[in-house]
Each structure stands twice: as C-alpha cells, then as structure tokens.
C-alpha cells in the first residue's frame, strides 16, 4: 500500500488538532487563554495554529463549528439506530444532552459572551429545534404521539431550546444545558406519549369468582 499523501496527512493532523482544541476549550473555557497558552497546551507552534485560523477569535469559532459538526453526526447516528418514533425522539434529545455534558460551565459562559461562537450555537439550536419538530411529526403521523399541532409544539420547543442556548434557563433554574435537555426530553415524552388503553373488566378477571 502506498503511504498517505501529504495533503491527507495534513488534513488528518488538522482534524486531530481541532479535536484536541475542542476538548481543551470544553474543559477550561477560552476567554482567559491566549494563543501562546493554546499552543503550549496543544504542544504545537503558534504558526501551526495560524495555519488553522488567522486569530484566536477565528480559531475559537472554528473549534466551536467543529464541535457542533461532530456532535450533530453522533446525535443523528443515535437517532438512525432506532425505528420507533418515541425512541427516536428520546434518542435525539438525550444524545444532545450527552454531547453538551462534556462542556464545562465556564465554556458555556464564555460561549454565550463571545458573539461569533454564540451565533454558531444559536444556528445549531435552531436546526435542532426543527429536527425535534420533524421527529414529533413522525410520531404524530404514526399514531404514537397525541395528535398535537406539530407547528405549535415545534414553536414551544424552539423557545425552550433558545432559552437554554442563551443561558436564561441556567440563570433561572440553575440547570446546566445538558441537564435542561434531559428535563426537556422527560417533559416532552411524558406529554406526547399516548396513554395505554384502559383495561376492560372482562380482561381483569372476576374477584371472588368460583
């Protein structure tokens, strides 16, 4: 087999570096870190970082984009592994919660305070809300969920997700973003799922019968 081309090796190195950068930022935040700090922590040169982006601000935004792209792929893989509409909706929301669980409160605060990165989070939140609306629609069409107005449910979910993204839920409740998505999943599934049919008396047996 021939060795990978320099361009492929370079692309793989960039992806590995972004993965390491994302892990660092998720753990520690980024507002307090300089390019020198990042280069030292990632064990690379500032020149290497400048090859990825022209400034710290651009680098942070690119890392946030990378994080959400990778997270979206994993979330959709979790959904694709299920066929039941209820399980698909639960898998989506809980996979989102799992992805956000890796983010420290400091990262989330820095993200909210940095407009270029906050815009990326907002855009992904809007896409996630649309996806949840689609999954609810699947469940309603299949008769698994109550016949709720899907457009109304999608609007309520969008408002809630945006409030999570903008840190209003964290401020009002103390819940982190991952915890808020777990609570949203529980609330949605309990509210949407059709109740089990009531048992008929003849199905329950007769108490005291001979």
TrEMBL record:
<dbReference type="InterPro" id="IPR001647">
    <property type="entry name" value="HTH_TetR"/>
</dbReference>
<feature type="domain" description="HTH tetR-type">
    <location>
        <begin position="11"/>
        <end position="71"/>
    </location>
</feature>
<keyword id="KW-0238">DNA-binding</keyword>
<dbReference type="GO" id="GO:0000976">
    <property type="term" value="F:transcription cis-regulatory region binding"/>
</dbReference>
<keyword id="KW-0805">Transcription regulation</keyword>
<keyword id="KW-0804">Transcription</keyword>
<dbReference type="GO" id="GO:0003700">
    <property type="term" value="F:DNA-binding transcription factor activity"/>
</dbReference>
<dbReference type="InterPro" id="IPR050109">
    <property type="entry name" value="HTH-type_TetR-like_transc_reg"/>
</dbReference>
<dbReference type="InterPro" id="IPR009057">
    <property type="entry name" value="Homeodomain-like_sf"/>
</dbReference>
<dbReference type="InterPro" id="IPR036271">
    <property type="entry name" value="Tet_transcr_reg_TetR-rel_C_sf"/>
</dbReference>
<protein>
    <submittedName>
        <fullName>TetR family transcriptional regulator</fullName>
    </submittedName>
</protein>
<dbReference type="Pfam" id="PF00440">
    <property type="entry name" value="TetR_N"/>
</dbReference>
<feature type="DNA-binding region" description="H-T-H motif">
    <location>
        <begin position="34"/>
        <end position="53"/>
    </location>
</feature>
